[in-house]
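Kindly review both lines to help learners:
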Amino acid sequence: MISCEEAATICNKTQYKEASFLEKIQLKLHLLFCSTCAMYSKKNAQLTNLCQKANLQNLTEKEKSKMKQEIRNKA
């Protein structure tokens, strides 16, 4: 069985659709026996859902560079 630390890593990978089939099975098995990790996984899924519903936008690299330059100019 995997450790709680490994379960958290797989949970995060699952959130970004990066976990393998075997990792997902290992995680499901771990969650059956570990209520702490099960709660973490549930909260992680809720956070993912909220972020998707919020339709968050990322800045482009150009926009980030412009903001950094503006901050430097004001300092």
